[in-house]
Amino acid sequence: MHISFEHVSYTYQPNSPFEHKALNDMTFSIESGSFVAVIGHTGSGKSTLIQHLNGLLQPTEGKIHLGDYTIEAGVKNKHLRELRENVGVVFQYPEHQLFEETVAKDIAFGPQNFGVPQEEIERRTKAAVKATKLPEDLLDRSPFDLSGGQMRRVAISGVLAMDPKVLVLDEPTAGLDPSGQKEVMDMFYDLHHEKGLTTILVTHSMEDALAYADYILIMNHGELYKEGTPLDIFRQKEDLEQVQLDVPEVIAFLSKAEKEYGINLEYKGQTIAELAKELARKVRGGSDHE
Amino acid sequence: MGERQVEFRHVSFKYQEDMPWVLKDVSFTIGPDEWVAIIGHNGSGKSTIAKLMNGLLFPQEGEIIVDGMKVTPETVWEVRKQVGMVFQNPDNQFVGTTVRDDVAFGMENHGMPRELMVERIKESLEAVRMEAYERHEPHRLSGGQKQRIAIASVLAVSPEFIILDEATAMLDPKGRKEIMKTVSDVQQERDLSLVTITHDLQEVTLASRVIVMNGGEVWMEGTPRDVFSRKEQLTEIGLDTPFVSKMADHLKEEGLSLSREPLNHQELLEDLCTSRLNM
């Protein structure tokens, strides 16, 4: 689903002493089928931005196009239901929103609300737990008896069971251990490709933005600070530091190697092994001239 | 009072009678002024160790000795004066309506006189560089600031040991840096031992010693350099190694010789340049 923002602004509690402009004149577009990372320090407007994607918030100025749907400032949105069927949002710590008696009921809750027939719900539930790698025998258990990691997978399965075309992920790996983080990200990456989804990932991890995204939006003070491919974006170390963002470790390392040790190596997405090979060659090559 | 240390003697623990052991015959000692990092994947028993250390739980077998005192329901208040704890979720550890009240709370529980409390509030907020926030409401602070207040609250009781149980896991990168800076400053300025339970490999490299837990047992113990040089053993239990460690390994495969297991970019690059000169 193609998504575009045209001069979108959002003000919390307008005309009150608490008035706060969280988004300011945002214009960008996201190609259908792309994997976009939204980065920016805490308070830069990332969460406000993604709440616009399924109509939880309506812009106070500007227009948003999501496929054939339009959300426009000041115009009542009649197609909110359809929009929400198509845009699945995995919020931060989604396991806090589990409430049903069994895992199966929790996963079925969303599609049931949208009138999906029972048979179809069962099919989707099976597919969702398979995608999130939850054993099927957990379906009859209470979600509250599961481990934290499993509870998160149940919550994610509930979003997948809606069969969305757009998947919005708000820091989906927060609080998981490193192997859990990698599993969850790999899972979303696989789903993205298998189902041809448009995926929007809000993250604090520059490593994840580099590893999974094909496009990056950087937010700062409610505005779009920069956009581009990961390689483009992360080459601009100083500009990122300006808005209190780091670069992925591999790029920080190469930049230090260049600045302080005169070892010049451009990052083009190499693996650590490939970089080691090039580094070794440089170090050896360097000695020939000395 | 015995010597200043925490000692686990053959400790085994399970949450319920019919459940498997979470810790199995765990023994180690944490001495004065040490910074010990405990790592291991989820379910390896890391957090259980923290809870046993300040008497939130008691072991079925073995004993835990804090400053010569065995941790029991009777000694638990005395133990908690010596062992302070900061938890993962910054939002779950506030009771006061102002930062000041919050820092005072722990001291009130220990029945400290008012004059001493006033002095300690000032000192501990200064230690975490939050003195300007004394009258602020805790819930309006950022995650990193909240955790710094939590650390100040613990410092105010003046413990000899502070446990940080994944205290940076829910913070953004800026908050993490704030906390790690605060923690290393405090550890240098004050006479205390630190135990950090963490998944963050960067944090581990700052510690003086690492305990690796696996399946409820102590799997490995050593300096960060030692531990990260035993990569096969770490990979075997599904733990990752830092970027520089991996890079160093690949460089060795390429035939370069490095003098040590690097802990940061600087060390690796220094070694690389030395090997360039030696060629």
CATH architecture of the largest domain in chain B: 3-Layer(aba) Sandwich
Domain module tally of chain B: 2
Which residues of chain A sit in consecutive blocks of at least 5 with pLDDT less than 50? none
Assign the CATH class of the largest domain in chain A. Alpha Beta
Looking at the overall shape, the CATH architecture of the largest domain in chain A is 3-Layer(aba) Sandwich
Number of domains of chain A: 2
In oligomeric terms, what are we looking at?
Answer: heterodimer
Helix-and-strand structural type of chain B: alpha/beta
Distance between the termini of chain B: 58 Å
Structural class estimated from helices and strands of chain A: alpha/beta
Describe this structure in words.
The complex is a heterodimer of chains A (290) and B (279). Chain A is an alpha/beta fold. Helices cover 40% and strands 21% of the residues of chain A. Chain A is built from eleven helices and ten strands. The longest helix of chain A has 18 residues, at 178-195. By secondary structure, chain B is of the alpha/beta class. Chain B folds into two domains: 6-227, Rossmann fold (3-Layer(aba) Sandwich), CATH 3.40.50; 242-279, no CATH class. Chain B has eleven helices and ten strands. Chain B has helices at residues 46-53, 76-82, 99-109, 114-127, 143-156, 173-189, 201-204, 224-229, 231-236, 243-253, 265-277, and strands spanning 6-13, 23-30, 35-39, 61-66, 69-70, 83-86, 161-165, 193-197, 209-214, 217-222. In chain B, the strands form two sheets. In chain B, strands 6-7-8-3-9-10 form a six-stranded mixed sheet, sandwiched between helices. A four-stranded antiparallel sheet of chain B has the order 2-1-4-5, covered by helices on one side. The radius of gyration of chain B is 20 Å and the shape is globular. The N and C termini of chain B lie far apart (58 Å). The mean pLDDT of chain B is 90.
